[in-house]
Amino acid sequence: MLDLLLPPPVDPLWDLTEAYGADPRPERLDLVVGVYRDHTGATPVMSAVRQAEIRLAERSLSKEYRGLSGNTAFNRAMLAMVLGESGPAGRAVAVQTVAGSGALRLLADLICRTRPGTTVWISDPAYVNHRPIMEAAGLAVRTYRWQDAEGRFDSAGMLADLAGAGRDDVVLLQGCCHNPTGVDPAPRDWGAVAELAVRRGWVPFVDLAYHGLGDGLDADLAPTRLLADRVPEMLVAVSCSKNFGLYSDRTGCAMVLGTSAQALRHAETALQNAARTLYSMPPEHGAAVVTTVLEDAGLRAEWRAELDAMRGRIAANRTALAARLTELGRPVEAEVLAQQKGMFSMLPLTPGHMQELRARFAIYGTVAGRINIAGLPADRVSCLARGIAGVLDGAAG
Ligand SMILES: Cc1ncc(COP(=O)(O)O)c(C=O)c1O
Questions:
Q1: Which residues lie across from 145 on neighbouring strands?
Q2: CA 338 to CA 250: how far, in whole Å?
Q3: pTM (2 decimals)?
Q4: Please, are residues 366 and 354 in contact by the beta-carbon 8 Å criterion?
Q5: Are 199 and 325 in contact (CB under 8 A)?
Q6: Do 151 and 37 reside in the same domain of the chain?
Q7: Residues having CB within 6 Å of any atom of ligand 1
Q8: Which residue of 29, 77, 137, 362 sits 20 to 30 Å from the alpha carbon of 159, by its own alpha carbon?
Q9: Is 17:375 a contact under the CB 8 Å cutoff?
Q10: Are the C-beta atoms of 365 and 335 separated by less than 8 Å?
Q11: Angle, vertex CA 311, rays to CA 306 and CA 312, nearest 5
């Protein structure tokens, strides 16, 4: 049977990570995979998370099966965090998922169960897994513009494209810190998106993976809350991977907002049924940790402070990189980079430049030019700036 398999396509990100692993140069710099690193280059367990884990270990809770919706206290805490304590209570249901990716897939399944073959609009460029996850669930994919030629958010282009989406369509929007570009709509642009969604009748599907790492937790969640206030129906996929540092604990949540209690009950059952056929129940540990943190005022405040510190470090990296690029005679590129947000930056470089950056400077970003600015050690900022300026100048760095 297995002889029939064609060679599967190689994942370009893991390909680069492997090449990095095999690179013998001591100065090599890995900015490919999206994980936060502190100034020592480590991806630490957050202190609030560690304390929650100790409390959970001491309580030694049973590992009995949970229900298909996972940890219901976690689901309540996530609804309150994302939509706000005074958010649309009674208008939303949530189901714990296998991280943000699991939430994207369950919600895509829900769409397919509701209306097979629905078109989901994704940004161009998009998070590398958006199209494959939507297509694997059986949905059709179309794209809307995100950036203009200068690399800034293309409000007019996006709105013009989304004016073509209709009542039967779903529009997948990254709620903050867009991956891969780091370019986000301004608050007035989000207002226009909400207005268009109401007018055209399409359903917003918000993907939240980096809330807290852009302008702060509440500011990053403001567009999602604005949409929730304005539209009758909405889907939200939430990841706890980055902002709780729970990457390998696979913790996340799928939310559905609707207008009738019956529709919400049906949506929750459809999500549970989708989970049953994919993996049955999500893992408990990360959800228990997040719940412990969010339900305890002290741990919650500590987590918020740690998240703010991570955000500050990322912003400082970005500002320092822009300053060095300006010093090296690249003010236009520096300005574009300085305006980006979140863990990623899109360098104004071609795939050829990115290849040269690897070959000449041992700096690894994606072929499309994305770098994990949150993975950049502060003492390597100058080296990255020299590399960027070097490949742009075509001169030795
Ligand atoms: C935009 C976006 N959505 C969702 C995810 C999924 O994250 P996870 O499945 O690790 O929670 C990611 C991860 O990189 C992402 O960048």
A1: 124
A2: 31
A3: 0.95
A4: yes
A5: no
A6: no
A7: 34, 99-101, 127, 174, 179, 207, 209, 239, 241, 252
A8: 137
A9: no
A10: no
A11: 95
